[in-house]
């Protein structure tokens, strides 16, 4: 993997003399107080401005400020006119536009396409403060406000819409967001490297149209430039019968390999009987496939819009080209223009991660909100992000598409400094750190044993179908971090709230012991997602036996610690590859184990996720996609989606009529009755007639750790009736009373009330 210029090695822009601002200004009055006559960069965001490293606008804004630029924030503007977009004046360099920490459509709509009643990234949780497809709308208003100012698009919403993508809400394939937003350049993934490079070039006078070689960027161009070798994606992963060409994934400098490839092509055409018996062939001149000068052409927007198989093929090729060590550029035709995607950004080093997280964040919301509660901030204000990325590759989740599969770690010193800052600066700190984590709690400092293998690998997951032999699963650095963090003066408790990859955890019993003994606040959330092999294979998740193994370890160490603690497993309804019988078997497993799902939603098809390609196409992009390839069971009809959710809430009497009918259709009427091993009763309680939605009132997902995925599609399961846990997706914060109860429970002062259902 090529080296990248460190973030802190760029020359500072002249405006560095102004120094860091207490908060990035949101008004002309604040600019005047800072002595600014203008902003160099204005960031437009769909979230309330919280100056905290869990919020994208704060990270990008503070990073640009550290480069010497004057950065202003326009937060949740009125998008009905251009007026709000002009309140800070014309930026000298560019507008940076993002929908916010979440995709605006997932933020506003449930998996059933119903509007949510709140928005966790808005003061007071008020809904309606951002438009649908906010990135596109904001970009258009910025263009109206100041026509000649470059527009740089970024954030999760733009990142996951960088090519033609299936839109669940309109049930159709849409253009790349670059085409609809009319932005000049799009930065995808974690964009620190790209935003600094783009800002420095614009400040040096380079026109935005000339910036075409920055990794992690996408832009529109007319033709493939001279000197590039263009490769049709269908030659890599053939969806149908096409001419044989040299495999671009082999070393073309190896003449023997080239000969074999050409011989195979001859065999495919029937010119020889067996490629192993092929006579030596004359090697024709062929350009060397230089990775840095090769671009893979995906099927055009028009083709993937009309052909779902080609859509699945394009999705597969895109995911094959996500490793920064070996990825090539991609290009996709939209009408008479090309959307060009450069290779993914080089991950940040530990030193750079420390630099980004060590910037002078105020760690609180902007004073303009006058202390009004912002639910998303309330959830994360005492938490610390220790790493980025995820190599799990779960098909329903968009973390890897956005942050990448290579884990980017902070140093222990940087993490401990942040804990001390929280202790000393954040109002209301009681000594409890609510989370030390990231996209996954226990991937800190876990990586491939070989940098060479890592740079060449195209596997979508390091832990499926089993843990890769080349993956170092040593948890010792994380164990030491936990020990040092809880030893800090003034820190009473360190909780782990991020999702745990339990198939990794069981490789380190010492880690499980450390976690269970010291860092579980009564409940630990993990995500088996399902019990049946069919849907699990489509999710790229381990079998339920791994969950059982982890549970035995959890129970053992909980008992040794003399504590009362419980696992909260998450499950997904209506995921591609799931049949009615699969959901029935999951419901039986839940009943046998005494679990009752409290909140349930179905699979949420987020843009660009592999499972979304399954949902749209009915094909499995985890394997070669052809017109005759494996079909995938898809749950699309409202009634069937409702049924799958009902199986997860088998204990709800309002679901019993629907379940009785389904069990009879499945030939499992034997599961209807009062017996211990039967699923639902044969009779309906008085007043419990038909099905009623179990959708909760407060259903907005909180936090960016599962944005773009199906965090909102997971149920909360409880095994006893004492303390009400938080929603599995973070969407329902505890009330003050509940939070106090939770903290007391975490400190061991109270035990949850009631007998655990299903306990023996």
Automatic annotation (TrEMBL):
Biased composition (Basic residues): 747-760
InterPro entries with a match to the protein in the record: Elp3/MiaA/NifB-like_rSAM (IPR006638), Methylthiotransferase_CS (IPR020612), rSAM (IPR007197), UPF0313 (IPR022946), UPF0313_C (IPR024560), UPF0313_N (IPR013704)
Domain of life: Bacteria
Keywords: 4Fe-4S, Iron, Iron-sulfur, Metal-binding, S-adenosyl-L-methionine
Cofactor: [4Fe-4S] cluster
Annotated spans, Disordered: 674-760
PROSITE patterns: MTTASE_RADICAL, RADICAL_SAM
Entry's cofactor comment: Binds 1 [4Fe-4S] cluster. The cluster is coordinated with 3 cysteines and an exchangeable S-adenosyl-L-methionine.
Biased composition (Low complexity): 702-713
Pfam family, one: Radical_SAM
Domain named Radical SAM core: residues: 376-652
Binding site for [4Fe-4S] cluster: 390, 394, 397
Transmembrane segments: none
Metal-binding as UniProt keyword: yes
Similarity section: Belongs to the UPF0313 family.
Protein name: YgiQ family radical SAM protein
Organism: Geopseudomonas aromaticivorans
């Amino acid at each position: 993997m090529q080296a990248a210029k460190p973030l802190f090695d760029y020359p500072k822009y002249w405006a560095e003399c102004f120094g860091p601002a207490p908060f990035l200004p949101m008004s002309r009055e604040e600019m005047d107080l800072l002595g600014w006559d203008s902003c160099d960069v204005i960031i437009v965001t769909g979230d309330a401005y919280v100056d905290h490293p869990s919020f994208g606008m704060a990270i990008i804004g503070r990073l640009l400020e550290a480069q010497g630029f004057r950065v202003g924030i326009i937060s949740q503007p009125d998008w009905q006119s251009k007026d709000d977009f002009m309140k800070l004046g014309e930026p000298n360099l560019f507008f940076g536009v993002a929908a916010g920490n979440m995709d605006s459509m997932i933020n506003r709509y449930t998996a059933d396409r119903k509007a949510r009643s709140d928005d966790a990234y808005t003061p007071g949780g008020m809904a309606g403060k951002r438009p649908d497809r906010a990135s596109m709308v904001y970009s258009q208003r910025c263009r109206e406000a100041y026509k000649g100012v470059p527009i740089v698009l970024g954030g999760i919403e733009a990142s996951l819409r960088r090519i033609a993508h299936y839109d669940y809400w309109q049930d159709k394939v849409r253009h790349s967001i670059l085409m609809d937003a009319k932005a000049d350049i799009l930065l995808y993934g974690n964009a620190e490297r790209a935003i600094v490079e783009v800002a420095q070039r614009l400040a040096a006078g380079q026109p935005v149209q000339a910036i075409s070689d920055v990794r992690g960027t996408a832009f529109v161009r007319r033709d493939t430039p001279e000197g590039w070798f263009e490769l049709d994606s269908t030659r890599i992963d053939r969806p149908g019968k096409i001419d044989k060409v040299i495999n671009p994934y082999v070393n073309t400098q190896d003449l023997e390999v080239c000969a074999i490839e050409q011989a195979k092509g001859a065999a495919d055409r029937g010119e020889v009987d067996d490629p192993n018996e092929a006579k030596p062939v004359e090697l024709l001149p062929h350009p060397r496939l230089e990775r840095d000068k090769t671009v893979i052409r995906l099927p055009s927007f028009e083709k993937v819009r009309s052909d779902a198989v080609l859509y699945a093929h394009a999705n597969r090729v895109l995911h094959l080209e996500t490793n920064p060590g070996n990825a090539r550029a991609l290009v996709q035709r939209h009408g008479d223009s090309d959307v060009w995607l450069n290779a993914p950004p080089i991950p940040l080093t530990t030193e750079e991660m420390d630099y980004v997280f060590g910037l002078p964040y105020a760690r609180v919301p902007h004073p303009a909100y006058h202390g009004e509660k912002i639910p998303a901030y309330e959830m994360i204000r005492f938490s610390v992000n220790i790493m980025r990325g995820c190599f799990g590759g779960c098909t329903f989740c968009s973390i890897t598409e956005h942050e990448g599969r290579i884990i980017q770690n902070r140093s222990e010193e940087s993490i401990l400094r942040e804990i001390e800052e929280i202790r000393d600066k954040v109002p209301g700190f009681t000594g409890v750190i609510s989370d030390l984590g990231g996209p996954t709690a226990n991937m800190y400092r876990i990586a491939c044993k070989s940098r060479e293998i890592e740079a060449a690998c195209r596997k979508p997951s390091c832990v499926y179908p089993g843990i890769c032999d080349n993956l170092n699963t040593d948890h010792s650095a994380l164990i030491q971090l936990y020990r040092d963090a809880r030893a800090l003066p003034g820190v009473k408790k360190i909780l782990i709230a991020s999702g745990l990859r339990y198939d990794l955890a069981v490789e380190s019993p010492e880690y499980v012991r450390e976690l269970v003994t010291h860092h579980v606040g009564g409940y630990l959330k993990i995500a088996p997602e399902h019990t049946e092999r069919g849907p699990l294979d489509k999710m790229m998740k381990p079998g339920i036996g791994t969950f059982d193994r982890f549970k035995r370890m959890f129970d053992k160490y909980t008992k040794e610690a003399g504590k009362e603690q419980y696992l909260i497993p998450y499950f997904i309804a209506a995921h591609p590859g799931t049949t009615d019988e699969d959901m029935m078997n999951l419901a039986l497993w839940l009943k046998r184990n005494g679990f009752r799902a409290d909140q349930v939603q179905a699979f949420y098809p987020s843009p660009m996720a592999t499972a979304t390609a399954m949902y749209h196409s009915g094909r499995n992009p985890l394997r070669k996609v052809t017109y005759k390839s494996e079909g995938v069971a898809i749950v699309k009809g409202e009634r069937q989606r409702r049924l799958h959710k009902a199986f997860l809430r088998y204990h709800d009497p309002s679901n019993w009529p629907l379940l009785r009918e389904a069990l009879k259709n499945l030939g499992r009427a034997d599961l209807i009755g009062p017996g211990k091993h039967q699923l639902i009763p044969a009779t309906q309680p008085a007043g419990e007639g038909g099905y009623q939605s179990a959708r909760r009132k407060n259903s907005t997902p909180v936090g960016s750790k599962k944005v773009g995925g199906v965090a909102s599609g997971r149920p909360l399961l409880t095994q006893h009736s004492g303390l009400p846990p938080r929603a599995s997706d973070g969407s329902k914060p505890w009330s003050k009373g509940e939070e106090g109860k939770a903290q007391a429970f975490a400190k061991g002062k109270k035990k949850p009330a009631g007998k655990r259902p299903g306990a023996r």
